[in-house]
Amino acid sequence: MSHYDNIGLKYNAVKSTPWGRLELFNFKKHIQPFLSKPQTNVLDLGCGTGFYTELLAEWGATTVTAVDVSTAMLAGAKARLRNSRYASMVEFVQGDGLKSTTYGPKPQSYDLIAGVWFLNYAKDFKELVCMFSTICINLKQGGVFVGVCMHPVEDLYNFIVHHNSKVWAMTGLEDIYQDRLSCDAGYMFKAVFHPPKLTSLVKPSSLKPII
């Protein structure tokens, strides 16, 4: 748990980068159609500081159960929602996605489960199976899981070179790949946040007043 506590509120800084806004656009595009039902109960696994928890409520969820293993993350999430108009729709629960726990009043209570940067924390296939077990025990028949995680690639070296190229580096986020996982299913990686150089992405002549 200390690993997640160390990340803490630094998580919010990543969401403010151009990279974070691109993630937001894609996530909203793919999950919002499933929030259009009159009654949609959502489970947010690995809710972090509540960035998407609040947005899930805003985008149409009836209720949101937000779960995270970190007390620091949950404290940040509760602070974010404290004065929000959606506060009454959200319940926060400290829980570990690696343990098959029912978070609703009964098994399979949720129409939709979100897992933004949740599955990528599995260190091996066994932990990944545990995460999907948690999803299955909480998801209704016919329900939908929407996750955000690293894109699978066969040629990791060229992917890293491209991802950390000049243009991507200016988005404010860099991935540093470290040790190969013992199960040979991928690598440990560290996301490094840099203040983006937005001025270098826009030509001064292209700027126009908005009022």
From TrEMBL:
Any one GO molecular-function label of the UniProt entry: methyltransferase activity
Domain (Methyltransferase) ranges: 42-143
Organism: Bionectria ochroleuca
Keywords annotated in UniProt: Methyltransferase, Transferase
UniProt cross-references to InterPro entries, sorted A to Z: Methyltransf_25 (IPR041698), SAM-dependent_MTases_sf (IPR029063)
CDD domains in the record: AdoMet_MTases
TM annotation in the entry: none
Biological-process GO terms, alphabetical: methylation
Upper classification of the organism: Eukaryota, Fungi, Dikarya, Ascomycota, Pezizomycotina
The keyword Transcription belongs to this UniProt entry's keyword annotation: no
Protein name: Methyltransferase domain-containing protein
